[in-house]
Amino acid sequence: MTLAQWAGPARWKAELPHSHDTHSILWITRGQGRCLLDGIRRGVGVHNAVIIPAGTLFSTDLARLGFGLVCAIPPSEAVPMPDSAQLLRLRDVHAQSELTTILETMQREDKAQRPFSDEAMRAHAVLLGVWLRRSMIEQDPDPVRPPAAERLVRAYAALIERDHATGKPMADFARALGVTPTHLTRTCRQCAGMSASQLLTQRILHAARSLLEHSDHPFNRIAAMLGFRSAAYFSRFMLHHTGQTPTQLRRESHGAPMPQAGERGFG
């Protein structure tokens, strides 16, 4: 699919940290921006390939006029993927052409829906996995161990992805990582461009907005699912960080009109 189709019309869906249950390979052919991969903020631009394994915390903030292709591969397809997110900056024209050809061929196959399309898509996905492993070797034949700061933030990002709905404060995550909240915050600012608390808050916001948009759960149920003490506290949290109540956010996502004067909506 195109990058715009994958990201969706609402910018918060791409710009707030979250994860997908599929492996994703992004191929940027126009424009530039930034992305957060495993808690590490990086600049991205033309002829960059971003590889995001399933369950990896990430976000993207790309120019509106940018263009690219995305391939989403279910983990059940057993296509070999790296253990952590990767950013490949492709300078070789042949490598650029190979990736573009594979993705455009998959796009045509997916749209045509001819007989044995599933088998063809699976074969192309395997070929894509081969291209990926070759490109990683060519770009970094002797990978160096990431610095301690990056290892800490990646570990924190993994904990956030696993436990963001438990209601744990940032200090509990720092304790689990064996560091002080101050050190974790300083390291996150250095590597992620935001504090440790902001990274956790933004992940919770994405989960909350997704539940408000894609489920009909009552607000007290969503609050409990995300570890909030009460629906009232959840409502205050959303109002503080978005400027809108859960009712307003749900109505907005469904394209429903807001209540007229005299109507009442609850949190």
Automatic annotation (TrEMBL):
Top-rank taxon, per record: Bacteria
InterPro entries per record: Homeodomain-like_sf, HTH-like, HTH_AraC
Family matches, as PROSITE patterns: HTH_ARAC_FAMILY_2
Domain HTH araC/xylS-type stretches: 154-252
Residue stretches in coiled coil: none
Region (Disordered) location: 244-267
Keyword Ribonucleoprotein applies: no
Gene Ontology MF annotations: DNA-binding transcription factor activity; sequence-specific DNA binding
Alphabetical keyword list: DNA-binding, Transcription, Transcription regulation
Protein name: AraC family transcriptional regulator, transcriptional activator of pobA
Organism: Roseovarius litoreus
